[in-house]
Each structure stands twice: as C-alpha cells, then as structure tokens.
Design a protein that fits this description.
mainly alpha
Length: 344
Amino acid sequence: MVPEQWVEACSVFIEGDIDFLTCYVITLICGTILTMDRRLLIQAGIRYFFPVIAGLICAYGFSAVVGEMMGIGWQETIMFISGPIMGGGNGAGAVPMSEIYSEVTGIDKGILYSQLNAVVALGNWISIFFAIILNYIGKKFPDTTGNGVLMKGTGINTNEAKYEFKFIYSDLLVGMSFAAGIFILGNICSKIIPNVHAYAFSILAVALCKIFDLVPKRIEYGCHELYQFAGKNCMTILMGGIGIAMFNLASLFEVLTVRNLIICTVVVFGGVFGSWLMGKVVKFYPVESAITAGLCMSNAGGNGDIYVLTSANRMELMPFAQISSRIGGAIVLFTQSVLAGILL
C-alpha cells in the first residue's frame, strides 16, 4: 500500500545518508545513562551487577543447551535469541544489534531487525508473565521479598538525577554536541578494535563519565533535555520509519514458532534463576533481585520496565530497572558485538 518511492525516501532518512536512526540511538545512550542518579550507581552499582551477570550467564547457558537439543545450535541461539532478549529492548538493543550483525554478515539490516525484534517482543511478554508469578511468590513467602526494597537493611530508592536549570534552546545544541563527541569517540575506538561496535564503546564512555562525575551538570542537563525532546517528539517518526524501511513481516512470522517460544521462555527463566540465587548471596531480597536484575534485563527496555514493575506491583524499583535496561543492556550489546566477530 506504500508507494515504492516513499519506502526509498524513508530508507534514506532512517538508515541511509541522513541516518536518523544513529542520531536517535546515541541520544538515547547519552540521555538515559547521564540522567541516572550517580549516588545509586556508586552505592548499589558494583553489588547490583553480580545478580545481573549471574542472570546473563544462566540465560545464555540454559538457552544454549536447549537450543542445541532442539536443533538450532548454541551459536545461533546465543546470537539471535538470548542476546536480543537480554539486550535492553528495541531502540538500545535490537536496532543497534541488527546494525552490528549486518556489518559482520552482510545480511540486510531489515531482515535481521525483524528477527531480533520478534524475539524481543516474545521475551517481553514472557517477562511480564514471570513478574506476575514473582509477585505471587512474594505474597506466598513473605521472607523472600522486601516489598519494593532491594537491599536488606536499607531503603535506597533514589530517582533519576534532578536539575534546577532553566531550559534554553541552546541546551539542545549542548546535548547534540556531547552526543556527537561520544559517538565520534566510539567510532575511533571501533577503528582500533574493529570487532567491537562503536555503540558499545560509546556506552562504556558515557557510563564511565557518569560514575566518575566527569561531565558538568549543565552538559548533563543538555543531554537530558535532548533525550526528553527526542523521546516525546521523535519516537513516532522513528518507529514509523523503521516499520516502512526495515520491518519485514515475512521474517517476523518465520521466527514465531513453538520452538522459539520454548527457547525464549528458557532465556527468561535463566535470567530469573541466576539473579535470584546471586541476589541472596549479595544480601538482596530474591524476589526484587529476580525482578530487577532478571526480568528488567529480558523485557523490552524502558516500556518493558513499566510493564514488568506494574505487573509485579513494585514501581519503586524503577531506578534499578533502568540500570538493568541501560547499563546491563550495554554489557549485552558489548558482548554481542564481540561475539558477532567470532560466531557469525
């Protein structure tokens, strides 16, 4: 129903010479990470990543075994099912991952994106189902939950960073300049280490800047305002353009099989299992640990966090969910970019 010349125009705008997709993704990376509360990263960061990593290991390991048993192969299972589900959703996960895979394999980004986006959607709905189950477990076994508090003996519930600046339009230009600089740095590093995508280096650079408080607050504020502007005004443009230029329904339906549904369920279960056990080791309440470090890794990013936390009746855990979706997703993206050069 869409004229061919419209499709071509959308392709040029989204992923061609204009490359709006890259602009949006790097804005997302800078805005979400820099606007996290630094105190939260410092106080809970190191300890929190133990259940995140444990969940990733179990999700990858369990699904690789099941994928091998079901005839897909462990390599394809990790690259096209486990990684996308655990990779931070659509904009910060499936989209850049499809670009990474396309550069390595030469396969069209649209075909790859459709495959990855399909399993991300499956993983998201399965994560919501598991959130309902964990909420029930918390009610049935009260000693397993802090009812919205993650760490035993503390009530850390900090929100994203707050700014008292008055907005001026040049703040958007400041945010653009910082995002461009970060992406240039990521590209330079990617030239030095070609097997790792520029996105992964960009994410790592922003995270280090936030942890070590290297970015002036006014620049942080500029990135925050740019991210808010893009999120409110550009999401429809992005998703509409991706739908026209990149989305392939035939590839989507090929992925929606019973076998993939089983493996996607195993991925989500592995994330819950690993983060539950490691959460107990680091003195987290296991239900909250499984929800934030497990399900908020396997859901569909920011919107998925809302769905999962609402289903689990624990919206106060949003800051930790964001760490999983953004920083945890960055770890997965970095991992997949390295594995792509080895396994694809």
